[in-house]
Amino acid sequence: xxxxxxxxxxxxxxxxxxxxxxxxxxxxxxxxxxxxxxxxxxxxxxxxxxxxxxxxxxxxxxxxxxxxxxxxxxxxxxxxxxxxxxxxxxxxxxxxxxxxxxxxxxxxxxxxxxxxxxxxxxxxxxxxxxxxxxxxxxxxxxxxxxxxxxxxxxxxxxxxxxxxxxxxxxxxxxxxxxxxxxxxxxxxxxxxxxxxxxxxxxxxxxxxxxxxxxxxxxxxxxxxxxxxxxxxxxxxxxxxxxxxxxxxxxxxxxxxxxxxxx
Length: 262
Description:
- By secondary structure, the protein is mostly helical.
- Helix content is 45%, strand content 2%.
- β1 (65-66) and β2 (69-70) form a beta hairpin.
- The longest helix is centred in the middle third of the chain and has 24 residues, at 134-157.
């Protein structure tokens, strides 16, 4: 079959394939989490010996880990806990709940919630905080800190190095902010986790448009999705014949990008 019109497969579809991040349902009800009254400013307690032991001993081996699971942040996380004298950083309910919500909604930015210790955090956060053992509180604290640092990094700079995609990148490259550890301290003290993570996201108009389209594609997925493209092996140009053309057109009809007949 001849391709009569040029079918442009927009770059965004490649973006969506990258972010075919399986949507994670926000199945952790805040009603299940202990919800003390939120008043005043957050403060950090006394240093925790177990946190210090994990970070100091593991830093010497250059791999901070929990039960042999190496954490992602090997520089900012130790600096952060050193700054607050190795205290528990996430004792405040609102901070914990806000970060959990941000992780669960990260799929709307093309990310995978499971990349940010989601299951381990949910397992611990579903329990009453006061009922957690000291070890569980420490592990939850470290998971939350590692998650927020990694999530902030992915929001700010993405998961993929731009230069590996194109030798010349015509969109501004966002650099990591200086003193991430002190910024996290400030955000926790004023319960500013949500607003802090929102601020580090790209402000480029294209990013907003990509997010809008991604949400539309998730809606299509909920309605049954689209067909698999069959027979596509290489690029198709005007005048080419390909057995993939019928299934490409069907897919473009579902996404609203092709409204004609063929």
